[in-house]
Automatic annotation (TrEMBL):
Organism: Virgibacillus pantothenticus
Protein name as it appears in the record: Multidrug MFS transporter
Lineage per the UniProt record: Bacteria, Bacillati, Bacillota, Bacilli, Bacillales
Coiled-coil segments: none
Xref: CDD domains: MFS_LmrB_MDR_like
Record key words, sorted: Cell membrane, Membrane, Transmembrane, Transmembrane helix, Transport
Membrane topology: Multi-pass membrane protein
GO MF annotations, alphabetized: transmembrane transporter activity
InterPro entries: EmrB-like (IPR004638), MFS (IPR011701), MFS_dom (IPR020846), MFS_trans_sf (IPR036259)
Membrane-spanning ranges: 20-38, 58-78, 85-109, 115-136, 143-162, 174-194, 206-225, 231-253, 273-298, 304-326, 338-357, 363-389, 410-428, 440-461
GO cellular component terms given for this protein: plasma membrane
Length: 473
């Protein structure tokens, strides 16, 4: 379905942005909703397909792994194919993967469907950000990214609660059947509405770079993901991280030598982009603490159900969703510096409020502190991403969005593995539930240290708008 025939890009000023925004946001919504829907359904899948916990967890791990491998290649795909062809193809692959998951008779077929979903999602997210940056002028990009961020926040809010309700009343396959019609409608609407916005430069296909990128990012992501369960000393974890690090180093060296690199690492010559990417990574590592640790705390230690643990995170996700458009508008007026400083101050304080949890900690306390914490996250994530990408020239925006998403994936994998490892190693099971909660408290101390590092970095963001730094190929 992807066409490599050259198609004239439409002038962004001539595009009707509202229907286009609806198409893009719908695509983002189903991609993220699909990921969060599955988590609550895993126990039912284990029972139905007779799988153990380590095996079924691969349905989540493979998604992140393939997603992380595809994102770095997206910059090349955006320059190689038309916007319309690439987006509709990605949505179609996502729909096919979802249909395969819905009818999968066994674990192997279910994995094939998940790989299709992950590959499509890895293309869709950076492509959507690139389109937004090309169709909106620089003074309105904060607002556009705020709307995009609202959906990214609402999908995880709805996911666990909707999934908990579905698997209680219907077979686990219903979580895929719910998503499928939305994707099909989005494909039909995209076919009539979406225009070709990006310019095709037809870069050469460098097979060696694609292999190196896959082994490099894939090795690191797998190694860090497996470390949370297998421990940092296991052979597979050490081997994956070493192979990933070596091949990624060779990949970066090769990209800097090529005239037409698959992923342009020269974007890091721009100090604002480098700073905001680092800030986004550290903030994401701090944020991941709540998303991963709180459900474990709620279900395994405090005795709440999967549905209740989803509801515990719901206020925070709603706050983040509501705040994203507001912080987008504030960014357009005031820039990222003070939004980041205030936001990260909130994140730091609330993260340390999670370091004194006990058996008596209430549902309301966790939900409230997490909601305030997510208010702080909303003031940081989209504004710093937009601030960094705003400093890149137009031809580097596909590379900037791909790089930004890739670095966040790596940060998420590292942060999850590190915090789960800290929680496990610091726990004292012989002291009962409170001994287990001790591990959670110490993991939030580590997350708090990430927040402090991010807060310090935020003071280096300059006020006002610096002139764009042009980066040559």
């Amino acid at each position: 379905m992807v066409s490599s025939e050259n198609a004239t890009a439409t002038n962004p000023r001539e595009i009707n942005k509202v229907p286009l925004l609806i198409v893009l946001i719908s695509g983002a919504f189903v991609a993220i909703l699909n990921q969060t829907l599955l988590a609550t359904a895993l126990p039912k899948i284990m029972q139905d397909l007779q799988l153990d916990a380590n095996t079924v967890q691969w349905l989540q791990s493979i998604f992140m792994l393939v997603n992380g491998i595809m994102i770095p290649i997206t910059a090349f795909l955006i320059e190689r194919f038309t916007t319309r062809g690439l987006f509709i193809t990605a949505l179609s692959i996502f729909a096919l993967g979802t249909a395969i998951c819905a009818i999968a008779p066994n674990f192997s077929v279910l994995m094939i469907g998940r790989i299709g979903q992950a590959a499509a999602a890895g293309i869709m997210m950076p492509l959507m950000q690139t389109i937004l940056f090309l169709i909106y002028p620089i003074e309105k990009r904060g607002t556009a990214m705020g709307m995009f961020g609202m959906v990214i926040a609402f999908a995880p809010a709805i996911g666990p609660t909707l999934s908990g309700w579905l698997v209680e009343h219907f077979p686990w396959r219903s979580v895929f059947y719910v998503v499928l019609p939305i994707i099909v409608i989005d494909i039909i609407v995209a076919y009539f509405i979406l225009k070709n916005i990006t310019n095709q430069t037809f870069p050469k296909v460098d097979v060696i770079s694609i292999i190196l990128s896959t082994l490099g990012f894939g090795g690191l992501l797998y190694g860090f993901s497996a470390a949370g369960n297998s421990g940092w000393g296991s052979v597979q974890v050490v081997a994956s991280i070493v192979v990933g690090a070596i091949t990624l180093t060779i990949f970066i060296w090769r990209q800097l030598k090529l005239e037409e690199p698959i992923l342009e690492f020269r974007v890091f010559r721009n100090p604002v982009f480098s700073l905001t990417t680092a800030l986004g990574m550290v903030t994401f590592m701090a944020m991941i603490g709540a998303a991963v640790i709180i459900p474990i705390l709620a279900q395994n230690m405090l005795g709440f159900t999967a549905l209740e643990s989803g509801l515990m995170l719901l206020p925070g996700a709603i706050v983040m969703g509501v705040m994203n458009p507001i912080t987008g508008r504030l960014f357009d007026r005031f820039g990222a510096r003070w939004l980041s400083i205030i936001g990260l101050s909130i994140v730091t304080v609330t993260t340390f409020m999670f370091t004194n949890l006990s058996i008596d900690t209430s549902f309301a306390y966790i939900a409230m502190v997490n909601a305030i914490r997510m208010l702080g996250i909303a003031m940081v994530m989209m504004p710093v991403t937009t601030a960094g990408l705003n400093k890149l020239p137009i031809h580097l925006i596909p590379h900037g969005t791909a790089m930004n998403n890739t670095m966040r994936q790596v940060a998420g994998a590292v942060g999850t593995a590190l915090l789960v490892t800290v929680m496990t190693n610091a726990a004292l099971p012989e002291q009962g539930v409170q001994g287990m909660i001790r591990g959670v408290n110490i993991s939030f101390i580590v997350a708090g240290l990430f927040a402090i590092i991010a807060l310090i970095l935020s003071f280096f963001i300059k006020s006002g708008s610096d002139s764009k730094v042009r980066i040559g190929r």
